[in-house]
Write a structure and sequence with these properties.
homodimer, 2 domains, 10 helices, DNA-binding
Amino acid sequence: MSATTCQISLPPIKRTGRKFDQVLEGARKVFMADGFEGASVDDIARQAGVSKATLYAYFPDKARLFSEVARRDCDRIADAALQSIDMSAPVADVLSAVATQILTFLLTEPAQSMFRICISERGRFPEIAHAYYEAGPEMGRKQLEEGFRDAVARGELRIEDYTLAAEQFSDLAKSRLWLRAVFGVQTKFSHQEIAHVVDEAVKTFLARYGT
Amino acid sequence: MSATTCQISLPPIKRTGRKFDQVLEGARKVFMADGFEGASVDDIARQAGVSKATLYAYFPDKARLFSEVARRDCDRIADAALQSIDMSAPVADVLSAVATQILTFLLTEPAQSMFRICISERGRFPEIAHAYYEAGPEMGRKQLEEGFRDAVARGELRIEDYTLAAEQFSDLAKSRLWLRAVFGVQTKFSHQEIAHVVDEAVKTFLARYGT
DNA sequence: CCGCAACCGAACCGAGCAGTTTAGCCTTTT
DNA sequence: AAAAGGCTAAACTGCTCGGTTCGGTTGCGG
């Protein structure tokens, strides 16, 4: 099922022919690695194993190709985030699992690339940053809130401002490591590091919102 | 006093002549607005009110000019962050003040621009992202830690992992608003919003680390 | 076997841009 | 007054890159 969150651009007019997916996949690789300006159409064609003429048979211009790639990635993220959280297990355990999932994903190369692209290309393509924000952080926040409501209903948490609580939780989960990844200060993250950050995040969160 | 943290590049060889600062200032504006690739040297010269020949009399090439601009900005930030925190007032008040200061600064246009530049140009100039991280987040973290140690010594806080506590504090302070600013989802922030986030950040932090 | 459509690759066009050069202007120094 | 040095405007070089065109090839359906 495809999330309906991503309204970036109209479809690229023509998708008949075998090489369509090749083009998109090649473009994705090159765009993620080099950004919009940095990626040359010749590079993309080469990477996709396709001639430039073929590429331009599918997409009217570089910008539309880029938008399509970004749109697909946003949808992919939205779909991935769509399985909701069940708060049936002990709260601390669930929170740990969720925090680990969030942090691990955010440290992933694709997630980092997508973030860089959004920031770098915000001037040229504001819709992409917006769509990514909706599909990623905002979607995640909503799910967290929902889980929190269940837990509060069961008397396991005590929350007034659900939205901010959710944001605080994911910010705590990202603590230290995400910023270091984004700045390129650190690129490898051990399980110990991740586990430690997650553990402390849950402790702090529960100190405030636990019962 | 100039902070010694920023080791990006050697000085630009020649700074005789009146127009030197003009060039740097013009370059700063254009680079911050358009990024490295996006900024054309002609634009910079025009913005600086200077001929291209003059510009190239000072700087050997565009990259060196860019590095110099970034270096200065990093130094500026490092200097600004240099006044330390006195934890003499009631902890909650001090934390509120510090959080407000951090958040307000991070939502500032220059801070946002500098962040965008670091991320966008990480591929070409990794040293800049690194220097900014050192001058900004890392510097701030150290100061926070120091303040925390005082407070712990006076029995007003209870902390095991100072580093992570500091990171958690600044992450809590950024909650929600910073991410929205970075993605361009929101550009104006009311005092109420800021105050609310700060307030909740301090509450959560003290729930965990307060005595 | 014919025809058609997708595809190739390589040449090509035009625009934009980093960096250079030239010819000359203005102000300060000697 | 002449020399020298900082500056300017504008033309120019060389390159990259987005996008187009074209002649030729592959492969598939009838």
